[in-house]
Amino acid sequence: MHPTRKAVVTAAALLVMATAAGCESGGGATASHRSSAKPGCPTAFSRAEQAVKKAEAVNAPWKGPTTGPKAVHGKTVVYIAQTLTNPGVAGVAQGVQEAAKIVGWHARTLNGQGTPAGLRAAFKQALHLKPDGIVISGFDPGVAPDEVKKANAAGIPLIGWHANPAPGPMDDPKLFSNVTSRVEDVAKISADWIIARSHGRAGVVLFTDATVPFAKHKSDLIKKELATCSGTKLLSYTNMPIPQVNRRSIGEVRSLMSRFGRKWTYSAAINDLYFQHAAPALRAAGKDGAGAPFNIGAGDGDPSAFQRVNGKEFQAATVPEPLSEQGWQIVDEFNRAFTGAKDSGYVAPVHIATAANSGGALSWDSEGYRQAYRKIWGD
């Protein structure tokens, strides 16, 4: 069993007990919602409830590649991080480092500092290092079009992580593959969790980073899915670029609380980082970490997010990317590129982690991915 899946049996037992007690999917819905005679949107609620139940399933056996080229050795790859203050980007970087050591590669991480100028500078540095492959992590390749063209011209494979809304290869700009869960699935299940947990009666604040097309697309999809439930109201669609979240969150949260008060019962954000910085403002306002607003992060699922979820500290759920697993996938995709093979085509399944099903873990990955990749690579 994967080390991050400790206490799975206990978590599963808790889920069974919750179901027997008649609790709503998502665990811990308020008494007022449970006592509502009808959900705010019966059809949408029923559909959302079923989707959430499936996404909260604890075990996820490996359904990724089991065959592929043996590992080539002695390669160098450079990982360009949008910003290492983004825990998701940093988590995938660690996975790349771990997997690179297994296959005998050198992996270097460069920090783009979250600005277009910083990303272009990091990309220029990456090209100067003349690596065998470059990772574009957490940012749109269009930020550095000249550098992308130079890499393509030099025959350096580029692999993205959240570099585009869609997983798989890209032609313009040319990426061998883009590693990500399907943004449509992540956005939909995040909104469905709110609909299901609130019994279709939620006042929602949605946080996004409109400077990143991937993030904006995700939040637009969340907004669209929330709109399928007539009883769910979008109170605010708040733009806070990720590099500004640490300094803007307290002011934004105070403003939202002043405007909406108790109407604000749920929040969704394009990743968990927003709730790391919103928590102090909510705590200062006397809010209960286990109470409203109930917050879900639509992506990443870094250890600090799991700590908040497990401790019921101003975050009730996360839709985690399997960060370490995706770092290993990036190395496997590079190995396929280096050997002339096609990309694997694998896309990780969508999952919801809550205090009821995490088993106290600080991350979520599919079961057995390390063993599967090591077998492919001949390690």
Instruction: Please tell me how large the radius of gyration is.
Output: 21 Å
Q: Uncertain segments of ≥5 residues (pLDDT<50)?
A: 1-36
| Largest sheet: number of strands, sense, barrel closure | 6 strands, mixed
In terms of DSSP E residues, the strand content is 5-15%
What is the arithmetic mean of pLDDT?
A: 89
**How far is the first residue's CA from the last residue's CA?**
20 Å
Label the structural class: alpha/beta
What features would you describe in this structure?
With 379 residues, this protein is α/β, with parallel strands linked by helices. The chain has 13 helices and twelve strands. The chain has a six-stranded mixed sheet, with helices on both faces. Strands 8-7-9-10-11-12 form a six-stranded mixed sheet, sandwiched between helices. α6 links the parallel β3 and β4 (158-161). The protein is globular and about 60 Å long. Residues 1-36 have low confidence and may be disordered.
Topology of helices and strands:
Elements: H1 8-20, H2 31-34, H3 42-55, E1 76-81, H4 87-102, E2 106-111, H5 116-128, E3 133-137, H6 145-153, E4 158-161, E5 168-171, E6 174-179, H7 183-197, E7 203-208, H8 213-226, E8 233-239, H9 245-260, E9 266-269, H10 273-284, E10 294-297, H11 303-311, E11 317-318, H12 323-338, E12 353-354, H13 369-377
Parallel strand pairs: 1-2, 1-3, 3-4, 4-6, 7-8, 7-9, 9-10, 10-11
Antiparallel strand pairs: 5-6, 11-12
Helix pairs in contact: 3-7, 4-12, 5-6, 7-8, 9-10, 12-13
